[in-house]
Amino acid sequence: MNASALFNAEDRASYRILQAISNAANQTLSESTLQEQFGLTKYKLNKVFDGLNADLVAVSTETPSYLDDLEKGYWRAHHLTKVILQKLRVMYLKRSYEFTVFEYQFFFSARTPKSKYMKEHFISNAKFYEASAQLKNDLADDFLSPHEPADTEFATRLALFQFYFVAYNGIASPFKELDETVAALIRTLEAQLDVALLPTQTTKLRFFLKIWLLRMMNGQHIEKVLPGALELPGANGRLDGIHKILPKQFGVTSAELDYLYAFLAIWHYLPPASETDLISAARLPKAGRMTDEFLVLVQSRHILDDPGETDLSPLRQALFGLHVQMVTFYLAPTTFIDDQQISFFANLYPGFDELILTFISQLAKRADPVLNRTMAVNLYFSYMFTLINYLPTEALRDKVYVCVDFAQGPIYTDYISRTLSSFDNAFIVVEHRLSKHTDVYLSDFSDPTLAIPQVTWANPPSPADWGELADLTVRVKQAKMQTVVPKTVSDPFSLKRKDASDDKADS
Predict the structure, then answer these.
(1) Residue 442 belongs to what H/E stretch?
(2) Do 301 and 383 form a contact (C-beta atoms < 8 A)?
(3) Considering the entire predicted model, what is its pTM?
(4) Pairing status of strand 74-78 against strand 28-30
(5) Which of 140, 335, 386, 507 is spaced 20 to 30 Å from 345 by Cα?
(6) How is the beta sheet containing 440-443 ordered, strand by strand?
(7) 329-353: per-residue pLDDT in tens?
(8) What does the alpha-carbon distance between residue 78 and residue 462 come to, in Å, rounded to a whole number?
């Protein structure tokens, strides 16, 4: 669910206009385009212009953000960064009537009288009920992922975690009254688990713990630790230090500690040995089955020279970790969801592209787990990076052998070889002698006796020279895969078509 769905109507329109300007070339759009696209009169458009500039002043940093209309008939944005848009999103949320009701419903309904809450938030009885009706419609669309009735609390917490993590991450801290308690919890967890968390881990855990605490404080407790029939061993005393921090009114049951422990294990907060002992395909069979099915495709889609001789255990482990998150605490991505980059990887790794699209198609047909387009885009990148990182280059069918041979001697040859190897692009094999495998000859002199493509650098290579080499190796790679990669591949989410996006998170 996009945060903008909860904005007041005027703020929602203003935010959409600002997004359109942000995405335009030079962050400039004509007034006629804006009027046509958003159905606004000249008068209303001018009102939006003034309102947006006032809002931009409120969220500006040392460098002011603003719109100008110095060029007649055009609006141009200045210093309209992603961070500024995120700050506006939080500001619009906080002044939204529907968001005020949203927080009451999920976090305060059982512990704060409605009349008191309305008074504290300066919202009238009529406005509260109007916003409640609208919120009911908005939540019915896609707030909770499909789930069994017994898993409603799990699905609700996950949706809330996702919502606040996307809306506030890197910009502000919601529910500041819990900051000291959450900081104490994190210190206790680090001590009890004997781990030192990275900044991104701390941030994610901070959001998770706040939702966890607020739901317990409102009387909504977890009964099933994981959805469906999934089970993991419990905390078994490993998190007992939490009781010293949280008063009894929080209602921290053993199931709640097991729930927290499961999250910590699945999102890699535990020491590796503890995580390995806890999480296995036997305990999480759906994740194990998805991993097995993916590996079947790896071995059958002609991307490996000798599938039977390739060690796929590192790939299996990485895929299993990804699938475990998908079937349990799936946090919808906020980064690596730009489908404009998919064509780049598809051209560079056509075999991987075909394999990934085939598997995503299989998941879409089975609808278990249920995917939307944003999830599919992120899965594409996750699978692509996993294949690049965990399939050994020497095992790939479409690897490109580049023989590096400079007349100036080993110093020059080694420099180019090291630089080329540092690219680590999962398909180039550097050679220092010609062989029957050599696809490209890279040197400072051309050799008319060679019948293979040659790249000649008489001087230290420039960015253009490296680009020329990259283009050549990609063409060689693609030629090797033409006979085995189908010309058409099922693409149920139209991942390679920008205009097909149906649910991208607000930028």
Answers:
(1) strand 440-443
(2) no
(3) 0.82
(4) antiparallel
(5) 507
(6) 428-431, 400-405, 440-443, 454-456
(7) 988 766 666 777 888 888 888 889 9
(8) 34
